[in-house]
Amino acid sequence: MTYNLAQVYLVQNVIRGHDKMIVKIGVSEDTLDRIKALQTGNAFRIEEIASFDAGRDAFKHERYLHQKFKDYHCQGEWFEFDEDFFFSNVLPQCEEYFADVEVLEGRPYTTNRTLKSLLSDVDEELKKVDLNRGDVYVNHKLAQINLQKAQLLTDDDTQVQKYQKVIDDIQKVINRNRDEQRKIDQEKLAIREMKRKAKDAQRNLDIFAMGYLLGVCQS
After folding, report:
1. Which of 105, 124, 157 is the last residue of a domain?
2. What span, in angstroms and rounded, lies between the C-alpha atoms of 183 and 218?
């Protein structure tokens, strides 16, 4: 079983006075470090919009998004979007796409392990989740895969159904956590955009006020 930490990220180059969103769609194993590297030598602020676990096929997923939004391409991995269109169409499409991307790899349908050892691992993985140790998503997925293997080792239909219920319950938790995180990310973005718009409005007001005062002085 392997877990690839590669992510597809969306970051914005915040250019004052520019009424479009300049967005980079790229791949990195550490999005924050990548932002720091992009910020070096860049006169404008680089802000993270979103990042998605993408597994070993991260570059394939990146190419898919580049192709999907090719009509908005401006240079390299950079794209230009209207703000409303980005938040109402582009970002939701990215979130929906990556909701179905599996970053864990393994063979859940074959095993040479004993039922006891598999169930012991399931208990350990779920215990890590309860203690908030390690990557919660990975621990949940490992528990599901080991339960799928356990289903192969028992002839008791009742036990198979019992394991399936736990698998399904874990999936509900995974989906709920994903939706909650998505909501948090969207709220952060909304707050960031409100602050940016407030600053722009204040700057425009200052410019108007200065122009008005100059006009009064010259009249």
Report:
1. 105
2. 52
| pLDDT (0 to 100) of residue 74 | 93
Encoded tokens for 149: 């293997």
- 99, 115: one domain: no
Position of tokens 């392990």? 113
Distance between CA atoms of 24 and 41, rounded to whole angstroms?
16
The answer to whether the beta carbons of residues 170 and 148 sit under 8 Å apart is no
Longest dimension (CA), the chain: 95
Structure tokens, 144: 């599901």
3 state DSSP class of 45: strand
Residue written as tokens 């999005």?
31
Shared domain check, 144 and 100: no
Q: Which of 57, 82, 105 is the last residue before a domain boundary?
A: 105
Q: What is the pLDDT of residues 169-212, one digit of tens each?
A: 888 888 888 788 777 877 877 787 787 778 777 877 877 777 76
Residue type, 4: N
Q: Which residue has the tokens 């950079």?
A: 78
Count Cβ neighbours within 10 Å for each residue of 134-162 and write b for 16 or more, e otherwise. Answer: eeebbbbbbbbbbbbbbbeeeeeeeebee
* Residues 52 and 152 reside in one and the same domain: no
Residue 138: give the domain boundaries. 107-219
**How many Å apart are CA 7 and CA 52, to the nearest integer?**
5
